[in-house]
Amino acid sequence: xxxxxxxxxxxxxxxxxxxLRDFCGxxxxxxxxxxxxxxxxxxxxxxxxxxxxxxxxxxxxxAQVPFMRPADLxxxxxxxxxxxxxxxxxxxxASDSDAPVCCLYATAPFVRPQDLAAGLVALxxxxxxxxxxxGRFTSPIQRALRITQQGLLAMFxxxxxxxxxxxxxxxFHDAGQFYWGTVQAWMRDGNPYGQVVWPVxxxxxxxxxxxxxxxxxxxxxxxxxxxxxxxxx
Length: 233
What we know:
Elements: E1 3-7, E2 22-23, E3 26-27, H1 28-39, E4 44-48, H2 52-60, H3 80-90, E5 100-104, H4 113-125, E6 130-136, E7 145-147, E8 153-155, E9 172-182, H5 183-187, E10 197-202, H6 213-229
Parallel strand pairs: 1-4, 1-5, 6-10
Antiparallel strand pairs: 2-3, 5-9, 6-9, 7-8
C-alpha cells in the first residue's frame, strides 16, 4: 500500500492559518491533496492534523483524516519525522517495512503529480531508502560570502576566488515539497542523508518557501504566471 501523509497543524505563527488560507482560488492544503490524488501514486492520501477545521477542509478536498494528531506532536518544536512515525503507527503500516510512504507538505502548491510519480519510481527502481525533491542553487556555494564581525565582506573559501563558476561542482538544496521513504527508513534513527537517498530535481521556478507574508505574495505571483503559461484560466 502506497500512502501520502500530509502534516498540517493549526498553530502557524508567521502566517496564521496558512494551511487553510486561500491560495489562488483554493485552500492552500487543497493544492497538495489535488496533486497527490491526480498522481495515481497513492492508495490513501491522509492528512495528519490537530485541527477539526483542517480536517473538514481536507476531507472536502478528497483526503482522509482517520485520526487526529495529539497535542504533544503539534507544537512549534515537533519535527516532521515524529509526525510521520505516529501516522505510520496509526495506519497500521509499521510492520510493512518496504511500504512506500510519502510525506507531502501542506504548503507545496507547486508540487506536480509527475514529480511525485518520479519520486516513487526512484524509490523503487533505485532501491533507495528515500527520494527527496531538491533544487539546484543558482549561485555556486563555493564562492559564498559572509559578513565579518567588523561588517566587512569576506569569502567563506578564499581559495575559490579565481575558480570559474562552470568548474565548480553543482550544489543542491531541499525543495521542501515531498519526501518518499520506506516505512523502515522513516522508523530508523539518525540522519536520513546517511542512508540511500535519491534526488528528484525540480526547476527553480517551481520552488518557493512560504514562511512569511512576503513569501506568500511571491508564491502567488509565480503560481499565476505558471498557470497562465500552461494555458489555465
